[in-house]
Design goal:
Alpha-Beta Plaits; 2 domains; 5 helices
Amino acid sequence: MRNIRLILAYDGTDFHGWQRQSAAPTVQGCVEEAMQKLTGAAAQVYGSGRTDAGVHALHQVANFQTVSPIPCPNLLKALNDLLPPTVRVKSAEEAAPTFHARYDVRSKTYRYRILQAPVCPPFLWRFVYHHPYLLDRARMAEAAQFFQGEHDFSSFAGADAQEEGGSPSMVRAIFRSRLLWRPRTSMLVYEVTSTGFLHHMVRNLVGTLIEVGRGKLAPRDVLRILAARDRTQAGPTAPAQGLCLVKVEYA
């Protein structure tokens, strides 16, 4: 039995997230269907985490086990021939038998892009949140720093309180939380790295930062919201299309 590690990139617009669903197209389901066509046997593909419906990935890590003797370079080419152009396998390689894409994760980094230009180009709208209104970027950058550290993120969890790894704890450690302004492209970029994320957590962080940028919240209100452990105290959930999984690291 071989254990194959994949690195995937995908446009999540037309998918109902990563996780397989019986009645909706998903990235996991798409890759598993291609794998079955290629090898003639069913294989479960494990991802590093479950991206939401409409969320993209530049660097999603996955693994699956197979008895197929197809060499990894051939496997990569054949899978890309079978997959839709919105899903690409960037690499395929042999992994240690014990490697698990989900359980061995040390950290993940997400990037959220907010386009501040007056007009959103048609080739960008699937990958950014177009918000052409005034935002106080300095206040947002200050607020973003308060997310760093180990906190209970109940106030920023989705309504179902389900987390990618299945843990009931709402405590997460954020290693880095920063806001960047890229004037040449009029792009406001939020990057966050953590051991793991609650359902909708990053989009709720961004929604709260936008409220700070609009002047509805003060930067230090983030500390009050964290302490409240009450989802109603935080900002709205930012749209999915601006979010992308950009890095997954392992020990």
